[in-house]
Amino acid sequence: VQLQASGGGLVQAGESLRLSCAASGRLFGNYDMGWLRQAPGKEREVVAAINWSGSRTYYVDSVKGRFTISRVRSSLSLQMNILKPEDTAVYYCAARPRRIASAYDPTSHEYDYWGQGTQVTVSS
Question: How confident is the model at residue 106 (pLDDT cuts 50, 70, 90)?
């Protein structure tokens, strides 16, 4: 799987951005996907995750109600609304082969494939 992330940029607090991740190379539908971010001096965190079928989603508490993860065919998206300065980070899309429902851990950082990262900067 090859992942190409795009959509980052510089916005003001309260504005929106939509990140996209195009996947190619294998059957996209068989992969669990996620968006992770890392800010300078901070640990990487899972922002949002979605399982292979789209039936399960996860959001870190700080983005609940503001971010929405979705997937359609070979594309993964992250709609980010009401952005805050603390959302400033490099955002990565990631993928791993799907797991059975009982083994699905959306908070895991263990992904097999990663996009190149896209910078999101939110000014106050």
Answer: very high
